[in-house]
């Protein structure tokens, strides 16, 4: 599965602790992140993560481009609901595209935990069918 991690600054410690706790659940998947979030996770785990730009510089949009193509299977986006972000439109656009494509997205740690447990159980297998039978692409 293609999984993306994104966390705003005051949520980064929570994200790192979450990924440490579930490292074995993530280790056999293709992992992506915005710039600083990915650096923080890689510093404290053994995971390899493809890092895009930092969020305010366009990282949310880069992940959004993969979402638009229905390439992402799970997004864990720990947003800071109490701090205005300069790139708020990018954040809204990313979440909107997740809803357009019906991609599971967690915006808080409680939902993230439920989704990672679903991932461990194999509940994301339907996403393999999405990749296999993408409309407009040859099979
Ligand atoms: O701003 C972000 C998401 O909107 C996160 O970006 P960083 O991971 O680079 O801090």
UniProtKB/TrEMBL annotation:
Its EC number is 4.2.3.3. The keyword Lyase applies. InterPro entries: Methylgl_synth, Methylglyoxal_synth_AS, MGS-like_dom, MGS-like_dom_sf. GO terms for biological process: methylglyoxal biosynthetic process. It holds the Pfam family MGS. SUPFAM superfamilies: Methylglyoxal synthase-like (SSF52335). The keyword Lyase applies. The active site is at residue 60. Keywords: Lyase. It is an enzyme of class 4 (lyase). Substrate binds at residues 8, 12, 34-37, 54-55, 87. It catalyses: dihydroxyacetone phosphate = methylglyoxal + phosphate. CDD domains: MGS (cd01422). Residues 1-139 form the MGS-like domain. GO terms for cellular component: cytosol. PROSITE patterns: METHYLGLYOXAL_SYNTH, MGS. GO terms for molecular function: methylglyoxal synthase activity. Belongs to the methylglyoxal synthase family. Catalyzes the formation of methylglyoxal from dihydroxyacetone phosphate. This is Methylglyoxal synthase.
């Amino acid at each position: 599965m293609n999984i993306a991690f994104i966390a705003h600054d005051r949520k980064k410690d929570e994200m790192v602790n979450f990924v440490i706790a579930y490292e074995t659940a993530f280790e056999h998947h293709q992992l992506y992140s915005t710039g600083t979030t990915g650096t923080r996770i890689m510093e404290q785990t053994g995971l390899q993560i493809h890092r895009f730009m930092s969020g305010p510089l366009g990282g949310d949009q880069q992940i959004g481009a993969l979402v638009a193509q229905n390439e992402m299977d799970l997004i864990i986006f720990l947003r800071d609901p109490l701090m205005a972000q300069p790139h708020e439109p990018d954040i809204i656009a990313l979440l909107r595209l997740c809803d357009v494509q019906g991609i599971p997205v967690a915006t808080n740690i409680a939902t993230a935990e439920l989704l990672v447990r679903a991932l461990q159980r194999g509940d994301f297998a339907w996403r393999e069918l999405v990749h296999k039978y993408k409309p407009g692409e040859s099979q």
